[in-house]
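User: Here's a structure from my thesis project, written as structure tokens. My advisor, Dr. K., wants to see whether a designed sequence matches the one we expressed. Can you design one independently, without my sequence as a hint?
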């Protein structure tokens, strides 16, 4: 059985920490599920938490992630290269992403057409039983022909935020699905719950052989390179709309444990064990409030009730918890340039971006992780000066190696090919660029 984590989404519902480069599933605010594989004291992202649960369930080895190219380095960094990434050439909703992933498994991973693949979102908050249910669902689908299997969560309240699976009553664990209902109003949700409807957890599985039928409808074969080349031929629509709504043979397994979509600050803070992350001081009048401060400067909160406060280099949010769910309505005029990037080799934090008398300058704090190398690259429109703060490393510049130690300063002229390696420990530097830095990086090798 193969697992695909659908992680190509973007969005700002957890702004100012989330953006196009670092979507909500990559923000490290979560606590690990209890697992022998990880340090449970360290904060993790939704992606890291789910992958840890897959490890515990024995499903991680055959897991890949489907995401955009902008997120590839971040995924490799967070999972330490433990899962391959099927890269979408562009964002086109879940149906094309699912087809791309199937082609990747068949072309790149050696999967066979009779193998079962399960797709799941990367951001649900669940327990280990969730993955046990996925295993059982895969076992059922393995014995069926042309069947699609779903995972349905037992509702804990009549939610208007989730879609519902409508199962037929029957004996045994495997339920036949007779229909769906998308995000009903409160009265309809109460009726659905009373009739035994299940929350749609966004999990579906089928045999890989079925992908050929769905791709063939658009003249595309299950070859990964062809799917990439013909990606725009596939409709920009969801797998639910393109396939599920018109499929006859759909079954479901019921999951009866914790399941939440942590898509907003309101729902996310419900699962934060601490009231704050970062340097935050509360006064005694605060109630039911949470704060996240990644700025490295003190934050003082007084009199906050039912509020969420989040401060990053990209902005500051101060909101009533309920109202925070509607944050997208306030962000239409705010740019999407992130000041923090996580790469496979380290991190980049922009601390100043200025222009004085027509001269542009950008100052960044750069960390190269011990043993990793910043890829060889060059710039044509700006020069760089790096000052080493701590650690040791080497600068390789057009065949010449320069030792980097704390206090060392090196200038790199425009057009010079260079790479930087950290030796022994993390290498931390201040990088000052003079000139036009926008779209001015050419990778020589990856």
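Assistant: Designed independently from the structure alone:
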């Amino acid at each position: 059985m193969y697992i695909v984590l659908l992680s190509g989404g973007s969005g700002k519902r957890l702004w100012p920490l989330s953006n196009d480069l670092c979507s909500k599933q990559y923000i490290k605010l979560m606590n690990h599920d209890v697992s022998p594989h990880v340090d449970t004291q360290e904060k993790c992202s939704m992606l890291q938490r789910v992958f840890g649960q897959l490890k515990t369930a024995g499903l991680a080895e055959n897991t890949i992630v489907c995401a955009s190219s902008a997120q590839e380095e971040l995924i490799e960094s967070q999972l330490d290269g433990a899962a391959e990434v099927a890269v979408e050439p562009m964002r086109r909703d879940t149906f094309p992403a699912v087809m791309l992933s199937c082609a990747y498994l068949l072309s790149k991973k050696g999967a066979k057409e009779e193998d079962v693949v399960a797709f799941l979102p990367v951001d649900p908050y669940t327990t280990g039983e969730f993955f046990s249910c996925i295993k059982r669902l895969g076992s059922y689908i393995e014995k069926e022909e042309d069947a699609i299997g779903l995972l349905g969560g037992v509702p804990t309240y009549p939610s208007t935020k989730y879609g519902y699976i409508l199962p037929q009553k029957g004996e045994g664990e495997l339920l036949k699905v007779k229909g769906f209902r998308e995000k009903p109003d409160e009265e309809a949700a109460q009726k659905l719950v009373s009739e035994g409807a299940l929350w749609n957890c966004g999990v579906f599985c089928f045999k890989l052989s079925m992908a050929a039928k769905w791709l063939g409808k658009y003249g595309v074969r299950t070859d990964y390179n062809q799917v990439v080349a013909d990606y725009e031929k596939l409709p920009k629509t969801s797998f639910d709309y393109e396939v599920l709504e018109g499929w006859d043979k759909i079954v479901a397994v019921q999951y009866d444990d914790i399941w939440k979509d942590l898509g907003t600050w309101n729902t996310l803070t419900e699962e934060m064990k601490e009231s704050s992350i970062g340097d935050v001081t509360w006064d005694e009048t605060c109630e039911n409030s949470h704060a996240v401060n990644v700025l490295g400067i003190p934050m003082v909160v007084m009199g906050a009730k039912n509020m969420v406060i989040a401060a990053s280099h990209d902005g500051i949010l101060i909101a009533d918890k309920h109202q925070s769910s509607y944050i997208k309505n306030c962000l239409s005029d705010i740019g999407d340039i992130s000041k923090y990037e996580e790469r496979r080799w380290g991190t980049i934090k922009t601390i100043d971006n200025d222009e004085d008398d027509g001269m542009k300058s950008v100052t960044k704090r750069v960390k190269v992780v011990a043993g990793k190398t910043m890829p060889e690259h060059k710039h044509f429109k700006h020069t760089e000066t790096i000052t080493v703060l701590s650690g040791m490393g080497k600068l390789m510049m057009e065949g010449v190696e320069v030792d980097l130690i704390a206090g060392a300063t090196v200038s790199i002229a425009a057009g010079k090919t260079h790479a930087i390696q950290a030796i022994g420990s993390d290498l931390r530097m201040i990088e000052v660029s003079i000139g036009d830095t926008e779209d001015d990086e050419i990778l020589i090798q990856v």
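When you compare it with your expressed construct, this may help: The first helix runs from residue 46 to 56.
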